[in-house]
Amino acid sequence: MWFKNLQIYRLPANWDMTPERLEEQLAKKPFHPCGSQDMESRGWLSPLGNDVLVHAVGRQWLIALGFEHRLLPSAVVKQEADERAEELAEQQGYRLGRKQMKELREHVTQELMPRAFTRRRRLHAWIDPADGWLVVDAASQSKAEDVLEQLRHTLDGFPLTLLRTEKSPMSAMADWLAGNEAPAGFTIDQDCELRSVTEDKAVVRYVRHPLEGDEVKGHLEAGKLPTRLALTFDDRISFVLTEKLEIKRLDFLDVVRDQIDGEQQDKEALFNAEFALMTGELAKLLPAVVEALGGEIRAEAAAVTAQPAAAGAPASSAQTDTAPAYDPPF
């Protein structure tokens, strides 16, 4: 149980929720396979494969959202519908009109759907109710939004906010590279992406390449800004920080993993040990990242900043819950 990517959100510290209440509410929308005429199904699964939807280890919780999607490409439907349309045209002596073709494609879709293959996937989310973290193991914010949307539809109340920091990741990463100095507790690794803010949108990527020296500084002086930067925290966790405050390519180094003896534990004990170790390390990493970005903007301050210019106009919930903390200038 090791997360690979982190999409990070904020809950109120000491969120008024218990594992038992969360379990009860998630059980209202469990995962079921697709019905014969369903293109997609989603619902809550047990992270451990038993009947428990909220896997609690100490004060840390793990939940999982399951998806099943039918693989019925539109090209397959079109091909089958076109072949049937040709047969009907020969029988009737005239070609089908646009409305008739639309109805034929719908009929073919309904006929083929029960025979289509299905593909399943799941997304995990870690909840730390005491310190107010909700982290989705997803490669993009759009995928994480699937989990957040399902939680909104499932829970009686879901007081989620964005993680906002005083400095944008882009400007902070530019400062670190320009000064060739990582923030306290971090080291700069050898992967980086810089993107121009001008119309040409030129991109420079460094992979396993030293980032100190005049070359990278020259790109910064020319107006390129870092959108990704590889870092290591406390010689224990390596990752890539993005301009959207995402953490990608998360890797717990051997000094962390070697604390677990997998050969002497059963499946559940090993799962629990890995989850406890992972969340313990992330509970140190996340505050350190926030501190390196100048500290957190509290929800009250963020709400004031997000108010529309027109007096009395309602604030957009999409801005509060789903928009990225920082929009890149390109």
Keyword list:
seven-stranded antiparallel sheet, 24% strand, cytoplasm, RdgC, Recombination-associated protein RdgC, 330 residues, disordered C terminus, DNA recombination, alpha+beta, 3 domains
Summarize this, please?
It holds the Pfam family RdgC. This protein is an alpha+beta fold. The protein has helices spanning 19-26, 74-92, 98-112, 141-154, 169-179, 214-221, 254-257, 267-292, 299-305, 317-321, and strands at 7-10, 40-45, 55-57, 60-71, 117-128, 133-136, 161-162, 186-196, 203-206, 224-233, 237-242, 247-252.
Provide an overview of this structure.
Helices cover 35% and strands 24% of the residues. It has 330 residues and is of the alpha+beta class. The chain folds into 3 domains: 7-71 and 117-162, no CATH class; 74-114, no CATH class; 169-292, no CATH class. The strands form 2 sheets. Strands 1, 2, 3, 4, 5, 6 and 7 form a 7-stranded antiparallel β-sheet that branches. Helix 2 (74-92) crosses helix 3 (98-112). The longest helix has 26 residues, at 267-292. The relative contact order is 0.15.
